[in-house]
Specification:
2 domains, 24% strand, alpha+beta, 35% helix, 440 residues, single chain, eight-stranded mixed sheet, six-stranded mixed sheet
Length: 440
Amino acid sequence: MPSANKHTCTKQRSGRGHGGLQCPPWRCSAFGAACIWHSAAAGGTGFSLCSLPKTAALALLLLGSAAAQVLSPAEILDADMRVLQERHFPELKAAAVEITSHSYPYRFYLSRTLDVTEHKEQQTDQRAIRFSKFQRQIVVQVTGNYFASYSGRLMDRTERVKRTYLDVMLPIISAIAPRLTSEPKVAAYAIEISHHVRKDVLGVTVESIENLAVIVPRSMAERAAAGRDVVDQITTLRASSVYMDGNLVSLWPEQGEASWKDQAPKPEVVAPAEPAPAPIATDISPTALQQKQTSYQGMLDRIVRELDSTAHFVSYSPPVLVAFHKASYLQLSISTNLAPSAAGSQYRIAALAFDNHISHLIRPLLAFFKDDPDFEGVLFSSTVKIPSVTQSVEFFLPFRELRRYETYDITGQQLINSGYVLINGERVGLDLQAAESGIR
């Protein structure tokens, strides 16, 4: 750790900023300890810290371990999330104990509220572990405040993200992910942490807060939790979606800024209904399709057996390869049952069929295909049923875009925009958010 030197602080209510009046002790530590500045030596890490005495830090650690860190199921409004919270409450509590007892380089608190002073953190609700939804996928959400301060001069954005990820987020993932491997509904882990950054503004050192959120796909989280190799851990970060102060960011140039922005949780605008890019010309004659069908028949039979409980395949219409718009698609005929509350326009019904049923079949289906198949897409042909209403909805989705959806590189809306949607045999444009929010 860099050498410790006493410092003075600007007199601000927020407790941020250094380089002015003598710092009031109550602003810099929860127990009134003297404020200590850990300035970075030449070539150092660029960290700073207002440090507690070891005995006080130990007392705080014990208090945090004893306090409830998991949100009560009764406080969760979403019925599905409440069921998951109740089902896995013991596992989440065990993970919370591991998280709060971990030794972090700087003080860390689980918290329902980001961007608060450490003094205020002592009075803040710290029940910060819960099931939630992010971009229509179920995630385990954890939020907290990390009282490390990075030098903006010595550490760029990528280095700050990597440091907080390795020092704080990875221990959280390692505590939770192994305990939830039996829960198939978890798609990712959403970890939100605030940390501090020092920058020079007109010759004055000013400290501000960065709010960092990393969405880690489930498979990558489990891999990172199982290993100790730093290369694997950074690979997991590179496969995740990273948000800084609410904005999707790209940490490495080769990832491409656009591919990250595709996942931004903002209102989505449906692009004009233009045809999807034409795939490379392939033989889609009946004879060629039958030959492909034969080569995949064993796998198709296994898909029906293993996914039928969730897909609800139509027994009299087994999977078959069909031709559409000069491309071949694997047609899966399924039945989708919606609650009476789903009644409304044909667009609302189609949107809810995708969000509540079809989107949940994509990743289990793609798991059967380790390599890209010898056809261009998948046709989910659904007969949607709600009381007194039956509707046909067909989603023609390119396989390359299904792969991007599988790895969280695009949203469900963007996946739909890349293909075709037919309602009762007629092509339509479908805006999921607009359709689902329509008044009945």
